[in-house]
């Protein structure tokens, strides 16, 4: 609903910009994400589902866990889905099941969340960071081809921000060298490319139910997907102390389980995943249209969707030419509009990976993306009125001194 103080013709009316500036202190804040809105809409159903688990006493291995595994396998079009404690554990378990360790190399992007890389280090294998495609921010297939050696034991493409990496090309390259792919699909549940779903391309797919993800739990949770029976058995084995049968340990695994209570919550949300996805897509399309209508697509680049991609929009990131991004972020935050940078420091530039020897400038597209990207609110419960406020506040930045000072 439109509030009366926000003029309809705002985008084309320069006087409205000025009045908006003056009125900014009375504007409603727009959070980058508000998990309470989504959760309050399903509160009674969630509490009933949790109560059922409490009364059953089956806090681990309850039927809700198996139910969630079945639906995730369905959503991902895979034969198997194996639950675990987090997306980070899913990545670690995938590498453990592939018996990756010292002397092995794993190729992955530097422009991602830390967990994509730390699992490799934890097992004593060598990280090989490669650059991204500047249009999608996803790992570059050409860069993968150039980085493959005889020691390469896995490739981890990340479906960043909810859009699948170029999996057709990546799979062709990996197949020709018989290197398995682990998909980091933490941000991409329900996404697809060329009709094939995230988690169904590689040997193993890794999902996260961290509260900010598209299927967010009320705590931590993760899931592994795969097609192969032997791989599924191995993943389950490693996730349960390598124990089979009871008190017989065949390999050295870890303890990584999804709580029944968490699965019960996720089952309630899973029923609405399609709605959440469609609303995120509608929000992204509305930003695209409104930014273009206001001519702002000439000031910064809108996110690009690859033809054939079913983008699920975990994040909506604009690319603001360097120098202006931080000023725009400050302008938004001063006016209580949520804006964040994912990710401000590429992994190859992190202190803990200094010993790997990556110099500044060696992954130029990754470094440029880190300097220019800015993410805006996109979550399903964002109102049209709030979205209009985000757009008009960005418009006011480009219409005022805040922009001219740094331009
Ligand atoms: C969230 C995330 C993870 C880790 O998932 P957790 O459940 O938080 O451990 C891994 N990779 C990417 C790309 C993520 O966004």
Write up what this structure looks like:
The protein has a four-stranded mixed sheet, sandwiched between helices. Strands 3-2-4 form a three-stranded parallel sheet, sandwiched between helices. Strands 7-6-10 form a three-stranded antiparallel sheet, with no helix packed on it. It is globular. The protein has helices at about 15-25, 35-40, 45-55, 65-75, 85-95, 115-120, 140-145, 165-175, 230-240, 260-270, 275-295, 325-335, 365-370, 385-400, 400-405, and strands spanning about 80-85, 105-110, 125-130, 150-155, 180-185, 190-195, 195, 205-210, 220-225, 310, 315-320, 375. It has two domains: about 20-35 and about 275-405, Alpha-Beta Complex (Aspartate Aminotransferase, domain 1); about 45-270, Aspartate Aminotransferase, domain 2. The longest helix has 21 residues, at about 275-295. It contains 15 helices and twelve strands. The chain is α/β, with parallel strands linked by helices and about 400 residues long. About 45% of the residues are buried. Helices cover about 40% and strands about 10% of the residues. Helix 3 packs antiparallel against helix 10. The chain binds pyridoxal-5'-phosphate. Pyridoxal-5'-phosphate binds near residues 87, 113, 115, 116 and 220.
């Amino acid at each position: 609903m439109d509030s009366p103080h926000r003029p309809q013709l705002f985008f084309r009316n320069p006087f409205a910009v000025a009045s908006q500036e003056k009125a900014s202190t009375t504007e409603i804040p727009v959070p980058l994400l508000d998990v309470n809105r989504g959760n309050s809409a399903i509160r009674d159903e969630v509490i009933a589902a949790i109560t059922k688990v409490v009364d059953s006493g089956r806090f681990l291995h309850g039927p809700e866990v198996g139910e969630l595994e079945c639906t995730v396998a369905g959503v991902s079009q895979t034969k198997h889905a194996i639950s675990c404690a987090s997306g980070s554990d899913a990545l670690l378990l995938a590498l453990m099941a592939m018996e990756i360790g010292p002397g092995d190399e794993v190729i992955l992007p530097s422009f991602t969340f830390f967990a994509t890389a730390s699992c490799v280090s934890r097992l004593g294998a060598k990280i090989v960071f490669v650059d991204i495609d500047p249009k999608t921010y996803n790992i570059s297939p050409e860069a993968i081809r150039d980085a493959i050696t005889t020691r390469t034991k896995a490739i981890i493409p990340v479906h960043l921000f909810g859009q699948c990496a170029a999996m057709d090309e990546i799979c062709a390259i990996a197949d020709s060298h018989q290197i398995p792919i682990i998909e980091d699909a933490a941000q991409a549940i329900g996404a697809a490319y060329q009709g094939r779903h995230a988690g169904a391309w590689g040997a193993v797919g890794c999902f996260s139910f961290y509260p900010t993800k598209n299927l967010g739990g009320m705590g931590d949770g993760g899931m592994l997907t795969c097609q192969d029976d032997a791989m599924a058995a191995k993943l389950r084995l490693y996730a349960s102390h390598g124990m089979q049968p009871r008190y017989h340990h065949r390999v050295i695994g870890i303890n990584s389980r999804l709580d029944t209570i968490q699965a019960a919550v996720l089952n309630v949300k899973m029923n609405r995943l399609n709605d959440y996805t469609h609303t995120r897509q509608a929000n992204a399309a509305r930003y695209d249209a409104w930014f273009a209508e206001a001519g702002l697509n000439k000031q910064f680049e809108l996110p690009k969707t690859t033809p054939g991609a079913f983008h699920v929009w975990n994040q909506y990131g604009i690319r603001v030419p360097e120098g202006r991004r931080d000023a725009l972020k400050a302008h938004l935050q001063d006016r209580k509009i949520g804006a964040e940078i994912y990710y401000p420091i590429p992994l190859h530039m992190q202190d803990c990976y200094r010993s790997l020897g990556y110099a500044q400038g060696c992954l130029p597209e990754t470094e440029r993306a880190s300097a220019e990207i800015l993410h805006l609110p996109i979550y399903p419960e964002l109102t049209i009125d709030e979205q209009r406020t985000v757009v008009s506040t960005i418009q006011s930045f480009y219409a005022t001194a805040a922009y001219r000072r740094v331009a």
